[in-house]
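As promised in the previous annual report, we have extended the structural survey to additional targets. Below is the entry for Histidine biosynthesis bifunctional protein HisIE.
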Amino acid sequence: MLDFAKGDGLIPVVVQDNQTLEVLMLGYMNEEAWEKTQEEGKVTFYSRSKHRLWTKGEESGHFLQVVSSHIDCDQDTLLIKAIPAGPTCHTGSRSCFQTTYNQNFLFQLERIIQDRYANPSEESYVNKLRIKGINKIAQKVGEEAVETVIAALAETEHDFVNESSDLLFHLLVLIREKGLDLQTLAKNLESRHQ
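The corresponding structure token record, generated without further manual editing, is:
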């Protein structure tokens, strides 16, 4: 149960992209905003400047759809994992924290690949690979792995970065083709580390 009394009726709320895990914004909730967030499934804050409830996206349409919420150990801070319906920041940026790049872009790329599977189009390279089947996708991973090794041993750093990127991309497609995701691999790697 959240302890709103500690912060004079307000608690800080960190909103994180459910898939990329990027921190999108920080806001504040009072008990009424928390109840509305739970009822509607969209993040609602208490605006300290407007002195009213404010649902993120009420003007822009860039709502934050709640996936899960997590109360911290002191019960006075909330972490919400959400699916953003567009840029989160009023400046048009994906996050209110101006990072130079999305540190978790691999998760975003995974989401793009999943979308290409769910909504195939003729122009999509992912769709063209998917149509050719798992043998062709696996072959592409093998080709890119060889090209990455060659670049590491005999080419420039730029070439190595490009070939490594190609390898990761095609591996993500193969992972999706097998019906798996990065979370599965991350959990496996974490269990091996312990």
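The beta strands are 11-17, 23-29, 44-47, 52-55, 64-71, 78-84. The mean pLDDT is 93. These points will be discussed at the next consortium meeting with the crystallography subgroup.
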